[in-house]
Amino acid sequence: MTKLIFDCDPGVDDAVALFMAFAAPQDLELLAITTVAGNVGAELTARNAALIRQIAGRQDVPIYAGASGPLYRPPFDAGAFHGESGLGTLPLFEPEHGLADGRAADVIAGLVMSHPPGEITLAVTGPFTNLALAMRLEPAIIERLGPVVVMGGARREGGNITASAEYNIWADPHAAEIVFSSGAQCVVMGLDVTHQVRSDPARTAAIAAIDTPAARATHNLLEFSNALERDIVGGTGAPIHDPCVIAYLLAPELFTLRPCQLQVETASPLTVGHTAVEFRLRDPAAARILWATHADADGVFALLNDLLAR
Ligand code: BDR
Ligand code: CA
Asked: Please, which residues have CB within 8 angstroms of residue 70's CB and are 6 or more apart in sequence?
């Protein structure tokens, strides 16, 4: 059983990842959800997490709000890809249950310090601000953390927010650099792998056929992203980025990983947020960062459908 803190910025694809995590209580013990400003502002990402939690019927999982902006850079949301609310065209409501008391970085530091070393896994699907703040607050968490599984970065694929940077890293490159250079064991789902996992028409139709509240909401979210993909990129089937993180935690055999060194560009105005990934290592077995190169997309969607049907 994985004890998980899920740090996110919902966000259309974060919401789908949340549905997956909520549906797998026998595999993931969700200790806390922490939210951060990213795709939309901090108040909305926290509200959206609570709204998704209510649809999933998982009020038992506490949600803690976190950073309202990056460490140093000005906030820049991705509302163009997630809609004004952050949840595309999903019908909105005010969640019955509110947020838990406490700030995300304190909660992350507190939970990691109060559990045995290696016991807590972290999933990060937004800018890395909360985790970087927790590491600053309590540096001892670095050696007590279990795996940190993140969505962020790009190598072969180029960027999605600029020519050379992926959004989560670009939004707070200093936080990402703190996390990647900390020595924590990181598994990285970048665009190279998430662009292989697309909600094409057949996969989206299969979700439409599942009659649960989570499946109906997921179908709505995917259709929103698919329409943008069609209009902006001219492509069929938007990538589902953040669900790859939860899919990896539940079924790591669906992904191929490669040890690497990873550095984040934090200075150059042109390439800020770029992830420099180096595979040529003297001692690959000692690498602390594993970069995902390949995903079994059919396997990821089979898992998603199975979870949405529960
Ligand atoms: C990442 O950026 C966000 O817009 C998505 O939610 C995802 O986490 C993809 O680059
Ligand atoms: Ca996200």
From this structure: 37, 127, 129, 171, 172, 174, 175
Ligand having the closest approach to the CA of 192: 1
List all residues 6 or more positions away from 168 whose beta carbon is below 8 Å from its beta carbon: 38, 124, 125, 126, 127, 128, 150, 151, 152, 153, 176
Indicate whether this model's pTM tops 0.95. Answer: yes
Residue-wise pLDDT tens digits, 244-266: 999 999 999 999 999 999 999 99
Active site residue 82: no
> Which pLDDT belongs to residue 156?
87
Answer yes or no: is the ipTM higher than 0.85: yes
- Domain with 294, as residue range(s), is 2-309
Q: Which residues line ligand 1 (CB under 6 A)?
A: 11, 13-14, 39, 78, 81, 125, 151, 160, 166-168, 241-242
